[in-house]
Amino acid sequence: MAVWGWSYGGYTTTFTISEGAEVFKCGFAVAPLATRFLYDSIHTERYMTLPEDNVDGYEKCSILNSDLENFKKASYSIIHGTADDNVHFQNAALISKALIEANVDFDNFYYADEAHSVNYGPNSNRHIYKLLTSKARRCFDLPAPEMNSDVTLILKQRKRSRSKSHFVFQDDMMLRNNLRDNRQ
C-alpha cells in the first residue's frame, strides 16, 4: 500500500512513515510541514498557543523529533515548491537535512518558483500528478501503461474535499466512459 498527501496530508504522510508500522511500502509527501515553529502563526497559535507557552506540544508534533530510522522501512519522496508561501520551502529542506543526517535513502523533487498549489507554470500541476503516478508505478514495480492497456493507474481528485487525491486502479473502459460522460 502507498500513502500520499499534500500540505497537512504531506505532514501526516511523513508522520505515518516515521511511525515505521511497515503497512505502507512507500509514501509521497507534497509540501509537508516539518515543525509548527515554521508554520503560519495565526493558524498554529490559535490551536497551540504561543510557542513559549507550549514548547512541549510544538516539539511533539515536529517531524524532526520523530524516529527517522523508521524511514528506512519504506520508500519516501518529498516534493515541494520553492516559492511556497504557506508551508515554506525551509520545511522540505529541514526534513531532507534530517533524513540525510540519519542516513536515510529518499528522493526529492522541487518545483522552482512554484507556490503551495504548484500551479504557476503552464504544466506544473499536471506534471506533479504525472510524477506521483510514476513514483507509485515504481514503488509497486508496475510497467508504464501501453496504449491498449487493460488497467491504468490514475489519480482521482475528490471534488468536495480540501484533501488531495488518492491512487485508484480503474479499467480503461470505465475510465473512457467517465471521461465521455464528463464531456457531455
UniProtKB/TrEMBL annotation:
Domain Peptidase S9 prolyl oligopeptidase catalytic residues, every copy: 1-133
Pfam families: Peptidase_S9
InterPro entries in UniProt: AB_hydrolase_fold, Peptidase_S9_cat, Serine_Prot_S9B/DPPIV
PANTHER family: DIPEPTIDYL PEPTIDASE FAMILY MEMBER 2, PROTEASE FAMILY S9B,C DIPEPTIDYL-PEPTIDASE IV-RELATED
Protein name: Peptidase S9 prolyl oligopeptidase catalytic domain-containing protein
